[in-house]
Amino acid sequence: NAYFSLIKINEQIYEPTGEANKRYMDFLDGKSWDQVEADSVLSKNENMLIEMKNALSFSYYQCPSTAESISLTTDLCPLNYLGAGARMAGLSALSKANKNDFQGAIEDAFLPVGIGQMLIEEPRITLIDYLVGNAMKHIGLKTFQIILATHDVPSDVLLPRMTELEKYLENEEGLKNAFR
Predict the structure, then answer these.
(1) Which residues of 28-48 are buried (b: 16+ CB within 10 A; e: fewer)?
(2) Whole-angstrom Cα distance, residue 141 to residue 55?
């Protein structure tokens, strides 16, 4: 269950605050770049990125409190840290792309896409799980789009990932399950 890897990052994520956060968000939007500042932020999140990669090795995500049943009184698992994790994976992807490590860049861009898909496909999904999963996928795909728009990614790196994109298109089942 990927939940147990992902929950470890809840306390590990560092995101800049204040003016540094504005620059960080500009980096993620592809508006500007400072490799030294990006490396500084990423160095504080190395373990978090490792745990996110570990989480992808699992075949599913399931919040323990919703594993048996879901009702109005069910305690939901925290999910807000996953958005920060997705943004950090995006920063790592952009950093690697700027260093011409396109294989690593695309791998990191797809990290939140894969985890987001896991949330959407969990056996007992809540609407919040679905929305967070969808937002994570959006962050990863936006990062992928920025990389493609700003770099000449070699086709031997890009083509194998294009077929992978198809499995992330269909999400209707996850949304239907959220309303059951």
Answers:
(1) beeeeeeeeebeebbeebeeb
(2) 19
Is the distance from CB of 52 to CB of 101 less than 8 angstroms?
no
Calpha distance 43→63 (Å, rounded): 29
> Is the pTM higher than 0.85?
yes
Helix axes 127-150, 102-120, angle to 10 degrees: 160
The tens digit of pLDDT for each residue in 107-129 reads 999 999 999 999 888 777 788 88
pLDDT for residue 175 is more than 70: no
Tell me if 37 sits within 8 A of 20, measured CB to CB: yes
Q: What is the residue type of 33?
A: W
Q: Phi first, then psi: what are they for 151, rounded to 5°?
A: -135, 155
Kindly state the DSSP code that residue 77 receives in the 8-state scheme. Answer: P
Alpha-carbon span 50 to 73, nearest angstrom: 34
Q: Please count the other Cβ atoms lying within 10 Å of the Cβ belonging to residue 162.
A: 9
Q: Between 164 and 136, name the one with better pLDDT.
A: 136
Distance CA 31, CA 51 (A): 28
- What are the structure tokens assigned to 5, written together? 């890897």
Average pLDDT, the chain: 87
